[in-house]
Fold this sequence. Notes:
By secondary structure, the protein is an alpha+beta fold. It has helices at residues 45-56, 70-73, 76-83, 91-97, 100-103, 112-118, 175-180, 189-200, 220-241, 250-260, 268-287, and strands spanning 6-10, 13-17, 21-26, 33-37, 59-64, 86-90, 128-130, 136-139, 142-148, 157-160, 165-169, 206-209, 213-216, 248-249, 291-296, 299-304. The strands form three sheets. Strands 1-2-3-4-5-6-7 form a seven-stranded mixed sheet. A hairpin with a 2-residue loop joins β8 and β9. The structure holds fe (ii) ion. Fe (ii) ion (FE2) binds next to loops.
Amino acid sequence: MEDKTLRPVYGNTWVLEARELIPVYFLNEEHTEAILLDSGLAVPDREMLEDWIRETMVRIRAVICTHAHRDHCGNNRWLKETQGAEIFMNEIENCAGSFYPMFSRYYNNIPAKELENYLPELTVKADRCFTFADRQVEVEGNVFGLIPLPGHTPGHTGIVTPDGVCYAADAVMSEDVMHRAKLPSDDDWAEAENSRNKLAETDYPWYIVAHKDVYRGDEMKKVTEANHRDRLERIRVLLGLLEDGRSYTREEIIRLMWKQLDLHIHDGMKMLIFNRNLECLLQYLTDSGRLEREYSQGVAAYRKTGLFPG
Length: 310
Ligand SMILES: [Fe+2]
């Protein structure tokens, strides 16, 4: 029976077409055992994962994670408990993603209890951790390459399957995701740019990019360049709102951007993520000298300096 939820990429590497693309590496020709690269969202991807596992009887032996965001490890705990899957993760991501008070750092420092209400069952300790010094990890006798790609999150790691397919995850946005994103979600914009440049220098036959696309090796440079242009445009738009040179509080800037982007977000988690992403952009513009931050009566305000990205 044809499995419409699966799309081949190369060799034993496939992608499960859930709402988030979940890369699958099959351990045998019969497709009875597999390793997942990330595990998607708890809602709605678990339902599809559950159907796929039940219908094909595939056994998930392990999940190798790129980073601890909710759309990448939303089913880790469930797969560990129901399939006995071993969880592999970078040590920094494990530290953040296994303990709500630390995890709140990834969600604009929202109180831990509130985050747990938004994302119940998300945190889980990895069974095995790797570091940025590790260039590979052996899972069930198969060697997966590791590429440190920090920036999107501090421990974000690209994974290369034994077939040579590179899963770049959120280090790069696919063109479709980029056009739909309200703001990029890079924790550290400068680091993320370095990681994209590093990725552009690699030479793998295929790249899987979160959350929807698979690119041929020769298309990847074009995608990383489009990401670079997109970031410059975001910066131009934000600095354009502060053109008059006066100081704006963070809240004033949020309102300006909200209006500029014509946002109609009502979901609390999405609003929180928008706030986080804007905060990261303000930090980058301050670090790179395009904004000056000053405090008045305990309130931070930002002023444009005149420097513009080249
Ligand atoms: Fe992410």
